[in-house]
Design goal:
Layout lengths: L4 E8 L2 H12 L8 E8 L4 H7 L4 E4 L6 H13 L9
Length: 89
């Protein structure tokens, strides 16, 4: 059996974004052995050091500014460099 690691991105600047990424990173399954990691796209400046201090396995993708265009640029760049995979079922 091959174990696959998935990175799932959540975009936004409030606590729900970080919480969603954290819950994704902590999730386990009784049926599947795959690994899941939450990624926050943008967040706020305090999130990465806080997550590090709490030893949470959450990654952060910065954006230039808080705009739709900046989010799109960050998301597309992240997909192109393979950090987050775009999959359809």
């Amino acid at each position: 059996m091959t174990i696959v690691s998935y990175k799932i991105g959540f975009a936004g600047t409030d606590g729900r974004t970080l919480l969603s990424a954290l819950v994704t990173s902590m999730a386990t399954s009784e049926k599947h052995q795959d690994n899941f990691h939450g990624v926050v796209i943008r967040g706020i400046p305090a999130m990465p050091p806080f997550a590090t201090s709490m030893q949470w396995s959450v990654e952060f993708i910065p954006t230039a500014v808080n705009s739709k265009e900046a989010y799109a640029t960050a998301i597309i760049g992240t997909i192109k460099n393979g950090l987050i995979l775009l999959q359809s079922s």
